[in-house]
Structures are given as structure tokens and as C-alpha cells.
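Figure S7 source data.
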Amino acid sequence: MHIGFLGLGNMGAPMARNLLRAGHQLTVFDLSEAAVAGLVEAGATAAASPAALARTDVELIVSMLPAAAHVKSVYLGADGLLAHVRPGVLLIDSSTIDPLTAREVAAAARAHDNPMLDAPVSGGTGGAAAGTLTFMVGGSAEDFERGRPVLAAMGRNIVHCGGAGNGQVAKVANNLLLGISMLGVAEAMSLGVALGMDPTVLAGIINTSSGRCWSSDTYNPFPGVLENAPASRGYSGGFGTDLMLKDLGLASEAARQVRQPVFLGALAQQLYQAFSAQGNGALDFSAIINLYRKDAQA
Ligand code: NAD
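C-alpha cells for the predicted nicotinamide-adenine-dinucleotide complex:
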């Protein structure tokens, strides 16, 4: 299939490479010339703008952009995709953005007779390179079935979450809970250790008791408890504090739009924001435990 791909960053570049590996023909665009050059070297063709990409005979377009403002400009701008793409071409946006913007762009696409899916991912850059991402997909069942084989070349779990925007709803709800649960584990671990408990013994109790969760048993924030967690390598790699802060911002904005309280999410957002303001935005988000630990060097 001839596929267009826009946004060749940390996630988009390895995803696009997996489409090439699966035998698809690729036309790509990114504002960064270096990013485009990398994909051209791997066998893709460069387009000079989103409009130029849209005017080729692509059958499907995937985008992987930083945030909602970029998605709006690439799809809705005068030199954007919708003003130039043929009707019927399937559009898939895999950027993480707020659900209401995703629905707005999908409605504009429908008005141009272009079906659209929102398909944000989890799995990080490692999953993007390995082709094992989870795609949370919003859109009609028919469009989902059309997009599924292409998504399957980049991911392992492809889940239909319901109508337009629901992929983003799933992503935002999960990451809201993750941000909160990490704070809960950080607080409980810090209290236990401050009261004299060994962190590994405490984590073992939690992980066989009712406090257990992914943040405690797979990604424990206390250094030394889990050998492979970012906490045991100075909080490097993993999922950055600033990315968690972005996702909590999306959750809180989406909540505001539907007047849904997110009490703990709002507090979590402020705590990650304070931690980022102290210069820790690039550290893995589990480093938030350093807000609690009297003995820690953040
Ligand atoms: P990134 O900043 O590495 O890449 C974004 C790319 O988009 C860059 O190459 C940039 O030049 C390009 N771009 C920006 N504006 C553009 C425009 N108008 N036209 C064309 N290209 C443009 O970001 P990333 O880490 O690849 O993340 C992409 C999306 O995936 C984000 O929404 C992020 O939240 C989400 N995400 C990231 C991760 C992760 O671990 N990095 C995990 C899950 C989801």
C-alpha cells in the first residue's frame, strides 16, 4: 500500500520504518530535514509539505505529532492535509491529544469524505522500534477494520475503543490513573521506610496485598526494589516527568470540558509540575518519590 507518514520523531521514525519493513511504499513529511533524510535513506520518498504529500496517490495517511496544535495545523491548515487529500483516503492520527480536539478534526475529515481514526499508543520508543505498540483506536467499526492491518505492522495490540475520540479517552484515563497510582506508591513506600521498614520487604508485602498495582509491582519508584525499573538506574530512560505532566494536562482539560471533577488528577498535575519546575522534567516520572524522601537527592 502507498502510505503517507507525517511526524518522524522519537516515535514516528521507528513506526514509519516498520511500515517500510512490512513492504509498504512510504511518502513522508517532517519539519526536520534530518528526520526526513533518515527515512529517505531507509527507502521512503520525501514530500515538501503536508499538501504535497496529500496530492500524491497515497491510500492512507498516518501522523505522529507532538500535540493538539500541531495536529490541527497539519490537518486543518490552508496548506494542510484536508484541503488537498482525495476523498476516501483513510486518515490515522496516532499523536496523544485531547479527545475533543480529536473529535473536532475527525468531524472536519468526515465533512471532506475522509474517514478518520484516532489511534494513540502506549509502549514507548522501545515498543515503537520493536513493533509491539498498543493502539487505542477511536472511529467506526468499518474504518477500524480498514486501518487494522496497517496498525498491526507497527503494534501488537490493536484495540477498538468506540467512536471518534475514544482512543484518546482510553489513553487519557489510563495515564491519569498511572500518574495518581505512582504518587500513592511513592507516598506509602516513603512512609514505610521513614518508619524503619526495609523497602524491599515493604514492596513484597504491598505486592501480595491489597495495595498492589503496576506502579508497585512492575515499576516501583524506590531505588533497588526492582532491578530493571528506572528507579534502580537513577531514573534515566522510561517515561519522562514532562510527558506525564502533558498527559495529566490533557486529562484535566478534557475533564473541564465535560465538567467532570478529577480531584486527585489535579493534585497529581501540580505535584509533577512542581517536580518539573525543580529541573527534573527529563527524569522518569517515578522519580516523583524524591518529593517525599528526606534522604533523596532529586
Ligand atoms: P517528538 O517530538 O520526538 O516527534 C515529533 C515530530 O513531529 C518531530 O520530528 C517534529 O519535527 C515533527 N513535527 C512537529 N510539527 C510538525 C508539523 N507541523 N509537520 C510535520 N512534522 C512536525 O515526539 P514523540 O516522542 O515522537 O511523540 C509523538 C507523540 O506520541 C506525542 O503526542 C507523544 O505524547 C506521543 N507518545 C510518545 C511516547 C514516547 O515515549 N515518546 C509514548 C507514547 C505516546
